[in-house]
């Protein structure tokens, strides 16, 4: 039994490990020079940057996965907690920290939002209920049609997710202070979606930030990829980089192999890849007449990303956000395709937790939402506005820059296959129906990947990889015994 896996992402590595442990022959083909998908390293003049996922959440999922392979996580990687992980800075007055320390959060709220302080436990209780409901739906066999959500066994969990409420409305039920509201609605705005357009479901992010905690991998989050790669190797998975799958061979309605770099055809009993990659590359199956209901397109609101190496260390938290004075106007401009004059700026500073890795100075990942464009002049203007915005709150970076790199939304799209569809507003049901584990039209084509999901993350990629592998093992063992 042979499985071809397209892409060396975290989710695919987890699935490959699980399949290999069942005696299945697994080969991973990654088109880039490195494994790890969106999680990747960049070096600039000796400074180490990591781009893509910056926040590690639910480490227990990663640990449980490694333990289930008969290994001890300590032999592979160390995941550490960041206590007060996010500082939200508001131009006029205060700053508001996010932490999973409830007493600390209540104390802060008492100063900023007395009603919010009283409501805080109820707020967390509702988030926990929603998280549980979400997990219940994820554990069901894949739901394909909207009406399935309104019927048992999904119905009760679906309604708990407040499908008809916006994120903004949800947060305002508990808090009155606009700065606190901005901090808890950024789960949408960070993704380029206005909080009053986003479904309440986005609040599930707060489960990790405020209840379960935020973490990082000692030595860099990329070590998670290295660990999974090592385990995959030990389990006999073969992986190849710089090998692009250019075609999935299909006979009638069954997958029967892949073609590498338009040259080499290889047989496979099943193929596994990320659902977003599949939607973005319809040419992979153009010979087969398969209807793609929801092809991926670049969307209006994207981001400008800057990597900035400093010769000093600044007072910047692991996750650090400097808010626009007027977030409603910021989104009005973004929706009209204009760059915001006063942007909200997001910073990631790994030196906050591991200064020993950054002796020369901070290596900052900075980004702000901007319309989708490859226009260099607009990107330069955006860069200047980001610096100006940071300067307003006392973060004068320009004089201390050793080197930097700026990526336009267009470049990001090319470099990272940015199909995340930032800025695309969906309803709750669309998020729940999105994670299709197996394509309905082609037999033995399986999917990982939940990047467009509001709760997407490295841990959920691992979980999803395990889930699809389990399904494949069940179905493919039927084939091994004579079917197909
Ligand atoms: C900007 C951004 C920020 C994020 N921040 C966080 C965060 O803070 N915390 C968190 O936990 N998660 C975060 N995520 C989500 C996280 O990145 C993903 O959940 C994670 O990368 C897992 O993705 P994946 O396994 O679905 O695939 P991906 O990481 O997308 O990997 C897919 C791989 O397939 C390869 N590939 C595609 N097509 C082919 C082909 N035809 N042939 C060969 N190879 C191919 C690609 O090169 C890539 O390596 C973020 C995502 C983005 C985009």
From TrEMBL:
One of its GO terms (molecular function) is oxidoreductase activity. This is 4,4'-diaponeurosporene oxygenase. The keyword Membrane does not apply. Belongs to the carotenoid/retinoid oxidoreductase family. CrtP subfamily. Keywords: Oxidoreductase. Pathway: Carotenoid biosynthesis; staphyloxanthin biosynthesis; staphyloxanthin from farnesyl diphosphate: step 3/5. The keyword Oxidoreductase applies. Gene3D superfamilies: FAD/NAD(P)-binding domain (3.50.50.60). Pfam families: Amino_oxidase.
């Amino acid at each position: 039994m042979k499985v071809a896996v397209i892409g060396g992402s975290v989710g695919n590595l987890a699935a490959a490990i699980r399949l290999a442990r069942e005696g299945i022959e697994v080969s991973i083909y990654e088109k880039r020079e490195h494994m790890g998908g969106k999680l990747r390293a960049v070096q600039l003049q000796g400074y180490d940057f990591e781009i893509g996922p910056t926040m590690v959440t639910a480490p227990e999922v990663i640990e449980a996965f490694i333990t289930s392979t008969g290994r001890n996580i300590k032999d592979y990687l160390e995941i550490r907690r960041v206590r007060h992980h996010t500082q939200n800075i508001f131009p006029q007055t205060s700053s508001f920290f996010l932490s999973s320390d409830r007493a600390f959060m209540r104390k802060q709220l008492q100063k900023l939002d007395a009603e919010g302080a009283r409501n805080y436990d109820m707020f967390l209780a509702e988030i926990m209920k929603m998280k549980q409901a979400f997990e219940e739906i994820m554990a069901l066999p894949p739901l394909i049609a909207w009406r399935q959500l309104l019927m048992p066994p999904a119905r009760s969990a679906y309604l708990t997710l407040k499908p008809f409420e916006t994120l903004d409305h949800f947060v305002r039920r508990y808090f009155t202070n606009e700065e606190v509201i901005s901090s808890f609605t950024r789960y949408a705005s960070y993704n380029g979606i206005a909080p009053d357009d986003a479904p309440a479901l986005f609040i599930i992010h707060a489960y990790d930030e405020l209840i379960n905690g935020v973490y990082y991998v000692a030595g860099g989050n990329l070590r998670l990829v290295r660990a999974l790669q090592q385990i995959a190797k030990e389990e006999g998975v073969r992986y190849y980089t710089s090998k692009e799958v250019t075609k999935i061979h299909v006979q009638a309605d069954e997958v029967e192999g892949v073609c590498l770099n338009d040259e080499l055809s290889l047989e496979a009993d099943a193929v596994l890849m990320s659902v977003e990659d599949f939607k973005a590359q319809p040419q992979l199956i153009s010979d087969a007449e398969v209807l793609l209901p929801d092809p991926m397109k670049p969307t209006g609101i994207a981001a400008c990303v800057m990597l900035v190496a400093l010769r000093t260390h600044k007072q910047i938290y692991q996750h650090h956000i400097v808010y626009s004075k007027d977030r409603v106007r910021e989104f009005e401009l973004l929706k009209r395709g204009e760059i915001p004059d006063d942007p909200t700026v997001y910073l990631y500073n790994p030196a906050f937790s591991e200064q020993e890795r950054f002796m020369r100075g901070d290596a900052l990942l900075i980004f702000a939402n901007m319309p989708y464009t490859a226009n260099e002049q607009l990107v330069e203007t955006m860069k200047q506005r980001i610096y100006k915005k940071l300067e307003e709150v006392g973060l004068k970076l320009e004089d201390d820059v050793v080197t930097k790199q700026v990526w336009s939304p267009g470049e990001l799209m090319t470099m990272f296959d940015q199909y995340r569809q930032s800025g695309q507003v969906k309803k709750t049901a669309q998020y729940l129906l999105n994670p299709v584990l197996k394509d309905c039209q082609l037999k033995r084509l399986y999917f990982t990947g939940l990047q467009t999901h509001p709760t997407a993350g490295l841990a959920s990629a691992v979980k999803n990889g395990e889930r699809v592998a389990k399904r494949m093992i069940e179905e493919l063992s039927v084939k091994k015994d004579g079917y197909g």
